[in-house]
Amino acid sequence: MKLFTQLFYDIDQTTKTNAKVAALRKYFQQASSKDILYAIALLTGNKPKRPVKTSELKAWAAELAGVPSWLFDDSYYVVGDLAETIALLLPPATSTKDYALHAIILELGKLYAAPEEQKKEVILSYWHSMNQTELFIFNKLITGNFRIGLSKQLVVKALAQYLEKEETAIAHQLMGKWDPKKETIDSLFTQDVTTKFYQPYPFYLAYPLEAEIQTLGDINDWIIEPKLDGIRGQLIVRDNSLFVWSRGEDLLTDKFPEFESLQKILPQGSVIDGEIIPFKEGMFLDFNAMQTRIGRKNISKKNLTEVPLIMVCYDLLEWQGEDIRNRPITERRNLLISLLETHDVKDKLLLSKALPFENWEQVSEFRNNAREQMCEGVMLKRKDSPYETGRRRGNWWKWKTVPMTIDGVLIYAQSGSGRRANLFTDYTFAVWDGEGKLLPFAKAYSGLTDKEIFAVDNWVKRNTIEKFGPVRSVTPYQVFEIAFEGIAESPRHKSGIALRFPRILRWRKDKKASEANTIDDLKDWLKINKQ
What we know:
Blueprint: H1 2-12, H2 17-30, H3 33-43, H4 54-65, H5 69-79, H6 82-89, H7 101-109, H8 116-127, H9 132-143, H10 152-163, H11 167-173, H12 185-189, E1 204-205, E2 207-208, E3 222-227, E4 231-238, E5 241-246, H13 262-265, E6 270-280, E7 283-284, H14 287-294, H15 301-306, E8 309-319, E9 322-323, H16 329-341, E10 349-351, H17 360-368, E11 377-382, E12 390-391, E13 396-400, E14 404-415, E15 424-432, E16 438-444, H18 450-462, E17 464-468, E18 471-474, E19 479-484, E20 486-489, E21 497-500, E22 503-507, H19 519-530
Parallel strand pairs: 1-12, 2-13, 8-10
Antiparallel strand pairs: 3-11, 4-5, 4-6, 6-7, 6-8, 8-9, 11-13, 14-15, 14-18, 14-19, 15-16, 17-18, 19-22, 20-21
Helix pairs in contact: 1-2, 2-10, 3-7, 5-6, 6-9, 10-11
């Protein structure tokens, strides 16, 4: 545990990529093979389930620290992080022990079904034998909030250097759900990928286009497709089995029974990359329709009828069992077209359109009016590009349409967590209803600079009307422009409307609260979005 704790702090205290990779490589060289497996799982988002309730942890920590519950809660409010609060309040250990990371996680795993007294005994035994820095990391594990300033790509890079292998091979081996209890370093990283027939390929992600579109050169060098708003996924047919994986590496096969028959229709050794979209009567439905399917444990016949799904196919990654990602996209696309044309998949798989633009001005016009085409913008793919790993610049770009915007009045502010625990950074915004009252419509916490965050925090503290725990209602004075990607009716929200990906675009210091938008303006966006 001491090695893993040191790794956490080495990574947390630097912003330099090379320093983070070096810290990871050092850990891999010093830790046991079992600890390495569990560390990789944690660092790539494969976290164990929380074995203990938050309420239990609070009660045990307050008891051990000898503080009343109200003082613990006040401390938690100030610190903003439960794991750190407990680490700060607990008395120092009289003696410490260096536990193996894998042993801790395995023992915590046994607590899920254990009685409360057994859970308490195990947790307190760790609390009594760790120093404060180790306690913080341990508490992160048991609260289920373990996060670190590290991308999966850096873990892959460090592992590739440590194991002396190609990064693409390491990235592929880490795809999907794997269990550190059932793997060894050898089984995870030395087996041929084809022996793991269920495993997806690492997704290739496009960079947002920020330069002028004309800088891409000759338009004839590019394949241009609509950017669709669905669930990016890979459909795999291997070993007489079918798997559907999301970009987030969730296995979603059971969520999409529409695709079951493809197991027998598509050739073995086929992997298709595409977007799963609600599609009915020849038209795409909006993402809100998709959400009615995603959230259900059991898919009924009614769900299948009301919101049928289709995969819009972008790319062919594996053909007849061969990894063809290094071939140019034009070649992969031709094979994909042949595959779709020669197999009965028309009601399940649809080829992504290559839009026939003659110049960049036409592309720009399409992008500006993308919502009318039920898409988010355009994807631009260089015709000679291979299918790479992760987010790369140069060959694939996404150019999204301008977001929808609305001016809202700040009415509530809540303190953040972690490094923002003492700042009001989470905001609720309102628009005017038809009776001169403010109606809350969205929450947002991103979009402001650090300087603006401090300024808003200072203003909130000086203009608080009421306090509700960590939330403060404020004088309705400040106006902010809120950007969002989608809008839908929602009976669960007071405004009757739900926004998708709301964020602060800018602080409108030039506007009075009375000049903010109205609920009717939001409803106008709703009408436009439905067209």
